[in-house]
Amino acid sequence: MRILLVDDNKTNLGFLTKMVEKLPGCVALPYQAPEKVLADMPGLEFDIAIIDFQMPVYNGIELLTEIVHFEKYRDKPIVFVTADTDTATRMAALNAGAIDFLTKPVNPLEFQARVRNLIALVEARNKLADRADWLRTEVDKAVREIREREEEIIERLMIAASYKDTETARHTKRVAAYSEAIALECGLSKDYAKDIRLASPMHDIGKVAIPDAVLLKKGKLTEQEFAAMQTHTIVGCDILKESKSSLLRLAAEIAGSHHERWDGQGYPRRIAGHDIPLVGRIVAIADNFDALTTSRPYKEAWSVERTVQHIQERAGSQFDPHCVEAFMRALPAILRIMLTNLERDVMAEPTPETIELATKTAAA
Questions:
Q1: Are 312 and 288 in contact (CB under 8 A)?
Q2: CA–CA distance from 76 to each of 31, 67, 208, 269 (Å)?
């Protein structure tokens, strides 16, 4: 236990030092000048401070006021040594942060008894702090385990969905990565952007309820079939929205809103503008980019250039203009993701010129 002693009187300081050294496990840190104490902060390490009240340059209250400017010392027990029994003086000391007093001349037995009590207090505080650290560690561990289970649930659900439509599984992984890149350029935090990446693969989970004749049809859908296909947004949201998991609730929000349009002409609720959740507006662009640059039974894959132009032209109508701007800034990252996950038989490969143009656009 390290005990700071501050007294401008050399004799008194020597006496207090000897008293501390008689206590088992205690080390005295004697200072005759209060300004030297401050000069050694914040590197000075102590557990208890015993400070003389009347000193030159800084009196006890002034010294204590300076000490507690350092956050690391604010919970340290401080004892004043004073010959002054005036109530106003003692109240000022207590208001400054002192917890006890020793009256001059200091009685050795009283000194040792009071310091032992303070040592017991410090040890109890340290045990509580250790316990709090342990609890924080355990809580963090539990939160990590819960998140890992949530991520596994999403992965398993996507595996289940892939048995019905293998292309949907590959599509959702790319959309997830594109969505994270756009989210970061929208100014969202890395943690939230990661959550969007983890949740967005569920955006088409409602397609498990779509009849195979519609979902796997190798041609243009009829009006009735398209209406049936649109229900995947509602089904997906319904599957996920009652979950106690914040990640799955985010996935529900995405599933229910990623086909809404900025101008209110989307589905299923025909909401517009900022009434559409931001995550839905982000995933809408990522989903559209991947859908257009990938061949489908009813269409060829579009070039990256044509797809980017398509998205830019629909800023303010189909897409949130600010999200489109974020998409353009994220384009270099999106093209890197695309090249890493390229399926050459079904996807349009970006040309070197496109990559160079995207990089210049982002830099500008």
A1: no
A2: 17, 10, 62, 60
Strand positions, DSSP E, 140-217? none
pTM metric for this prediction: 0.61
Query: What is the maximal distance between C-alpha atoms in the chain?
Result: 101
Superfamily covering domain 165-363: Hypothetical protein af1432 (1.10.3210.10)
How many Cβ atoms sit within 10 Å of the Cβ of residue 313? 12
For residue 326 the two structure tokens come to: 């974020």
118 exposure class (CB count in 10 Å sphere: 0-12, 13-18, 19+): buried
How confident is the prediction along the chain (364 residues), in pLDDT tens digits per residue?
A: 999 999 999 999 999 999 999 999 999 999 999 999 999 999 999 999 999 988 888 888 899 989 988 988 988 999 998 877 677 777 888 888 888 888 888 889 989 898 999 999 888 888 887 887 888 888 888 878 877 888 887 777 777 766 666 666 678 888 999 999 999 999 999 999 999 999 998 888 888 888 888 887 877 888 898 898 999 999 999 988 988 888 889 999 999 999 999 999 999 999 999 999 999 999 999 999 998 998 876 678 898 999 999 999 999 999 999 999 999 999 999 998 888 876 655 566 666 766 665 565 555 5
Please report, for the chain, the start and end positions of each structural domain, with discontinuous segments joined by +.
Answer: 2-134, 165-363
Classify domain 2-134 by CATH architecture. Answer: 3-Layer(aba) Sandwich (3.40)
Distance CA 139, CA 143 (A): 6
Q: Report the C-alpha dihedral over residues 322, 327, 332, 335, rounded to 10 degrees.
A: 180
What are the respective helix, strand and coil percentages of the chain, to the nearest 5?
A: 60, 10, 30
Do 165-363 and 2-134 have the same topology in CATH? no
- φ/ψ of 103, rounded to 5, equals -95, 135
Q: How far is residue 152 from each of residues 22, 246, 250, 279, measured CA to CA in Å?
A: 60, 14, 16, 21
